[in-house]
Amino acid sequence: MANVRLEDVSKAFKSAVAVDNLTLTIDEGEFFSLLGPSGCGKTTTLRMIGGFEEPSSGRIWLGDEDVSGLPAHKRDVNTVFQSYALFPHLSVAENVAYGLKRQGVAKDEIGPRVEAMLELVDLEGYGQRRTTQLSGGQQQRVALARALVNRPQVLLLDEPLGALDLKLRKQMQLELKRIQSEVGITFIYVTHDQEEAMTMSDRIAVMSAGRLEQVGAPQDVYELPATSFVASFLGASNLLEGEIEGTSGEVTKVRLGVGGTVTLPAGRLTDSEGPVAVGVRPEKLHIQTTNSSEVDRGDNAIEATVVNSTYTGVSTSYECATSDGTRLVVYVQNLERSASPPGAGAKVRLTWDPDHTFAVSKARPEKT
Amino acid sequence: MAAASASRRRPKREWILPTYTGLVIAYLLIPIVVMMLFGFNDYPGKFNFVWEGFTLDHYRNLFEIPELTQALRNSLVIAAITSVVATTLGTLIALALTRFSFHGRSGLNLFIFIPMATPEIVLGVSLLSMFVAIGFARGFPTVLIAHIMFSISYVVVTVKARTSGFDRSLEDAARDLGADGWTTFWTVTFPLILPGIAAGGLLAFVLSFDDYVVTAFNAGATITFPLWIYGASRFGIPAQVNVMATLIFLLGVAYVVISLLRERGRSAAPDPSEA
């Protein structure tokens, strides 16, 4: 069942269009992430769902209700703010009780509900503390409790882990996921951190310059990025320009600009001819010295030169260049001690399974 | 050798700061102490300048001089009304100046400083000529108008210090949790800027209470506390004035101490798990 629906939502500020014709459906109970670089419109989208910004055009539905013109305090949605925005003049328990008081919940019901919520976020016994006495991670939990205690239809989270250090972030990511599955409320999570989005989300919407680039499960978005933006935002992209040569049965052949052809499953292309860019993720590439073995089965292969290699313990990453200068990144797991890893300047052959090849639509016309 | 001379010099240096600090405090407090002391002076004639002996008579007969009592009452009423009106208006102006960008905001920002930057004597004369020009009788209302006028600026500046650092996301949070604009203001905004409002209110009260110059020009037949004292100074100021001043001073000190204690109580009790 659709829980939140955006229909052709746009938001223009005085100087710029922040969100451009966004249509999106978020299902009930889903952990949904809005992912993109800063300025891509993800926070504005969240603020429109929360009721803090009014869309310039389009409609926003919450369940069966059109909430487009409804002010924030009348929406059954709660937010965890980036800065937490805890009330400094109130204790932890008073902070959590704030929403319940506004709803007019009976006094003798507020206490137990606040206690239960503090327990859920691992802050039992902290009710009487001042929020200014808490650490960043604890404040974050209070902000979460304060929002969740109202049992909203949807919880909005605006980069809630941004201010925490890496270790605490990782811990809170798992914690958030646990809490979400425990309460079963739809979470809409804004982040610019692709790893964070992939770790927690059921689905991810990647945004760029106010537009939706791709929506899908983390694996789909990562393995089969639909646009070159998504390909490069979610890791090293390794894109190669080419021209569609033709499709026979299940397989499409693409002639690369740099020479040679590669194949990929036919369904991955939207066009049947014309220019196209294909790509492959760095960990899917195999590296072999040119004079060694032959290419296996129907693997794709491309000749390149190693530019540099970086040993990182678990793996080694190679940066290679094709003859026309296109850079390709390769991650090789250090499963064995290699006697002579290819060094800078070595001629190598990069091979990969055609099934790991993705195609992205050519970059859409730049706005002029 | 060097170490020995340093340790010999150190005791001397340790005295400098306390001595200096002590002198500054004495400089600030001695006039007040003298004023308080002479509230207990058992002087025979009109002039309360030489210590003659201790008495509590002036406290017992505090309201013995009807004109003085009336002047004090006038000043207290004027200061109270000024404080309430100036604080209300000043707070609203400060809020408007910090959260809305409107046409003429920078002009207003500058404008607010004018009454603070103008010499009081000029303010007093200008007000007087204005009241005369429009044929407005001088008296209690004109004093009130004048006091509110120059107090607003101080309130705006004081409250603005609080509102300009205000985290607007707190109000977003309140609205998010179901509070409408009115509730948000009274449950979040107001309690958080209250220290600024209280300071502004106190400032307005004090400014109004002890104003002489502006009042002298616009009071008509209304006599305020400072006006009465100034008038009496030619014939000898009765010790009741010292007593009243002492009581007002102690009230002010009590206010400051209480607000300090409240502030401390708020930030006290450090989190043991944080240490």
Q: Strand arrangement, largest sheet of chain A?
A: 6-7-8-3-9-10
Structural class of chain A: alpha+beta
Number of helices of chain B: 12
CATH homologous superfamily (4th level) name of the largest domain in chain A: P-loop containing nucleotide triphosphate hydrolases
Proportion of residues in β-strands of chain B: under 5%
Say what the CATH topology of the largest domain in chain A is: Rossmann fold
CATH class of the largest domain in chain B: Mainly Alpha
- Counted by DSSP, the helix tally of chain A is 8
Rough outline of chain A: elongated
| CATH C-level of the largest domain in chain A | Alpha Beta
Task: Name the CATH architecture of the largest domain in chain B.
Answer: Orthogonal Bundle
Please tell me the total number of domains of chain A. 2
Name the beta content range of chain A.
25-35%
Helix share, percent of chain B = over 70%
Oligomer classification: heterodimer
Q: How many DSSP E strands of chain A?
A: 20
CATH architecture of the largest domain in chain A: 3-Layer(aba) Sandwich
- Over the alpha carbons, how many angstroms does the gyration radius of chain B reach? 25 Å
CATH topology of the largest domain in chain B: MetI-like fold
Tell me about this structure.
The complex is a heterodimer of chains A (368) and B (275). Chain A has 8 helices and 20 strands. Chain A is α+β, with helices and mostly antiparallel strands and 368 residues long. In chain A, strand 17 (315-321) and strand 18 form a beta hairpin. Chain B folds into 2 domains: 17-65 and 238-264, no CATH class; 67-235, MetI-like fold (Orthogonal Bundle), CATH 1.10.3720.10. Chain B has 12 helices and no strands. Chain B has helices at residues 2-37, 57-60, 66-99, 105-111, 114-117, 120-133, 140-163, 169-176, 181-209, 213-218, 225-232, 239-267.
Give a brief outline of the structure:
The complex is a heterodimer of chains A (368) and B (275). Chain A is α+β, with helices and mostly antiparallel strands and 368 residues long. Chain A has 8 helices and 20 strands.
